[in-house]
Protein 1
Amino acid sequence: MGGPIADAPMTAAESVLARAAGVPRVVPGEYVVAEVDAMMMHDIFAADVLGMLQRVGVRRLHDPSRASVVFDHMVPAPSVAAAEHQAAARRLVKRYGIEAFFEVGRGICHQVMVEEGRFRPGDLVVGTDSHSTTYGALGAAGCGIGSSEMAYALATGRLWFKVPETVLVVLEGRLQPMVTAKDLVLYLMREVGSAEAQYRSVEHGGPGVATLGLPERMTVANMGVEMGAKFSLFPAGDVDTMRPGASYAATHTVDLGSLAPQVAVPHHVENVVGVDEVAGVRLDQVFLGSCTNGRLEDLRQAARIMRGRRIASGVRMVVTPASSEVYRQALAEGILSDLVEAGAIVEGPGCGPCFGGHMGLLAPGERCLGTHNRNFRGRMGSPEAEIYLGSPATAAASALAGEITDPRSFAAADEEEAGKEEDVR
């Protein structure tokens, strides 16, 4: 492919970086120094980053209003070491005048950043969490960075970036019942994957984009980093992001209506198969939650399937709402009651089970199907355990059956319950 034409339209990622760098245009492969609009740290790294600034004599942040700190990973503190680390972070947050501080129980950082409006469409956002690509759901260019990079950004307000090439994903049609955005992104993991998306911006366009709401876009953008993508971008609204004449390294077209439920099998997220290929695999645990699929819509779909039913004997189900707001709404709607009555354990908002920090760890030989984003060996406890990834619908159906199950077998019941809920609203 030849180089971009001088006056050709820029991709979404190029437009964000050009604006942030204060230049008319940028091209893939170019290095730019850009103003960062929003910076996020969570409890695992906040004390390290701010302590680094203190040690080198930085007395004040460039702009404290751009910084956010969210306690979400080791919450509530599962050890004395974690409690001490959080106490140090609290002191430094106060020392550096960071007002956007969200304590234990507020929720998972990416969900909180969206709920609190900590960035705007078109912003350049960085976070000390790799799944900061989530912010692309609202048209912001979000990515994860390391502690030293975050310290520099906090001190100067700026950071260097290499302008990525762009992979365009054209979405057509509409998802079928019991097929979700998680199935879409798992499908993309298999079809695009890190071999093609590594350090590229994955941008989603086409008429199918308008059929995906914000929660669904967050799920897809969240897992962009699993493909190695620097950014994973959607339009801020329903307007198509495809820009005729822009330079795309590759283009993929997906018919949403043709997709079936997907499952990632151990021990890599790109090992994706149709649910029918692993149906019947026995499970010990099901996890519903995380920054990928812990939103109200995810819990609501699982509750519709599980209402009036019981989790299979020998299976435990752990649920973590993505935020206190999600928890509150799920409680008000009776969603949490439905899940608990089915036999699930509902924990506070946080990341614990997803990354194996605490709550819901696996023993050797155990299998878990979760709605989170990574199934690496040892991710949730023992390296001899197995982790499968699927949608909230697949998780609910599998918890009831005690084995990986195609959720479409519950489609009629789900549609009936969805109709009743719509009538009530």
Note: The mean pLDDT is 92.
Protein 2
Amino acid sequence: MSYRLILTDIAEIFTAERDNLILTGGALLIAVDSAGIIIFVGKESDFEKDEPAFRQRYHHLVISAQNRIVYPGLIDAHTHILYAQTREDEYEKKARGVSYEQIAAEGGGILNSAEKTVLASFDDLYRESEKRLLQMISYGITTVEMKSGYALTPDGEIRLLQVADALRKKYPVTILSTFLGAHAYPVEFKENHTGYIDLLINEMLPRVKEETEASFVDVFCEKGYFSVAETERIFTAAKELGFGLKLHADEFNALGGTELAAQYGALSVDHLEAVTEQGIDAMKAAGVTPVVLPITSVFSRLPYAPAQKMIEAGLPVAFATDFNPGSSMSGFLPLAASLASTQLGVSVQDALLGITTHAAHAVGLGESHGKIVKGYQGDIVVMDAQSWMYPLYHMAHNHAWKIFIKGEQVDTTAQIELNGAECDERGATHATD
């Protein structure tokens, strides 16, 4: 057998496999083959029956977890990290109690970011997005969904998705990109929704298919943004081109978007703070994964989505960061799971399933990512803890000790150096603003 990694001395493993969720008892081992696939999970003593004296024979591949716990690589199924500049001014308004809707009505929100992003060069967008991505990897996130939607012009949206493509080529993390041109109506199309949707369907979607590696198309279906009928036009065109479908829905109002997404076979519906019984039933019947965003509720003072109610209905609820410059300026995915447990009434097990296997299903990777079982990709995070619950219990602290993608250890030194550069650069930038 050809190995890439033999991880030994593990105290506990959260496998994310429902029938065998937590392996305990210490002296556990995970082996990953040369293709990056997990081929053994269990007791070291059982592994040694087939591989006697493996520590000596494969000493260069053996890494000790030193009695720590292990999670599958974490999966963030909903982010908006492709953008230019930040929006601290809006954060200050939020602190004074100004609502999301008020900020948007005053020219802030999505259009604020779009105005900045459309003027940014590819290199500037790449550098800013790279810093965010590397920070997320350092938390143990090994799969990331990235949305466009902060340019709202054909060239600008393509440029954002090509940044995601470039990051995918450079880093081992699994990156899935989503075209969210239907994030808001640009100022010039404020009174001409049909014109913008025509632009989306006739120019943007074909170019996204031809010029980028985007997997999904998303729409913000909400009052003041895209109606259910408008969403359906975009979904129809996207489906014809072979894109997977995702949807922002039921964040402020239940318009029927969730039911539409179920009808069209969408992979996920995200937000769901205002989801109805009908929406829950529709998702369950169609096999749609709900993606709940607890950090957004805290950051933007929104109600929490009824995650526990959806779990009790039999839905595999995922939790994600919604990392974006306006309503959730955080890429710390374990915090979303901690909030799910402390604020949404979700068990610790379900919170962790929500950032591993359920999140994998939300991005179409449920058969290959998000579990520590034989046959799955060797994305593994060793957490500096002796109890599988501790990283969520000790919330808002990064417990990632070692990170492996396809069995290869990820060096986060570059991330630390980039963060230092970011601090210097942002300090200089803000001094001249």
Note: Residues 3-72+372-414 form a domain with the Urease, subunit C; domain 1 fold (CATH 2.30.40.10).
Protein 3
Amino acid sequence: MQVEQQAPLRADARRNREQIIEAARMMFIRIGTDVPMDEIARAAGVGIGTLYRRFPDRSELIKAVSLDNLQRMAEMARRLERDEPDPAVALDALLHSIRDLYLSFVMTSVSAVAVRAIKDAPAIQEERDELLAVVSRLLRRCQEAGAVRPDIAAGDLVLMLAAVSRLVPVADDELGEMAFQRLFALMMDAFRPTAASVLPGRPVDYQDVEHLRHHGGLAGFGRIAPAAG
């Protein structure tokens, strides 16, 4: 099947697109994916007409933000895996570095409207699979080196990041930011081999996370809405 090639954007059009995606990313974190489009345009410093020329509807904007997030996270993961010889340092740096990107990704992964928007986007699935593959490799290397407890899998990391992301500090909220940082630090400590608790059950992989999400087993994290009709 022949893939239609899109013409490259002019510099000003590319800049507008990048500004819109960045503004949408931050507002998805602070407010949610149902934030009014005119507020996103205002935050991006563009007119509403410019926003709709780039993204005809909310679904297209959600897809663009989700893909951009995953591309950034996957590239960061590949770079750390390639350049950092210590897998524990690489995994720690990755989890800390992707915090804001992951918060936005969670928002666009758990909202019912967002799930419908991205479920049929192959490019998003490919980037997600690539990111998870790198994280799984780093995690396995950490476990082989004795730097991370042996009874977890990549899905456990995803669940913990999703849980932590529910405490999203509002802008200029020092107490909220401090609480978030403390919770994130506690999460990181829980992965270390010195953690005392024995975990029930078995390690959770990403397929388990998807199963839970599709069947409403992640209360507060976005049950997938039933198809209309």
Note: The chain has eleven helices and no strands.
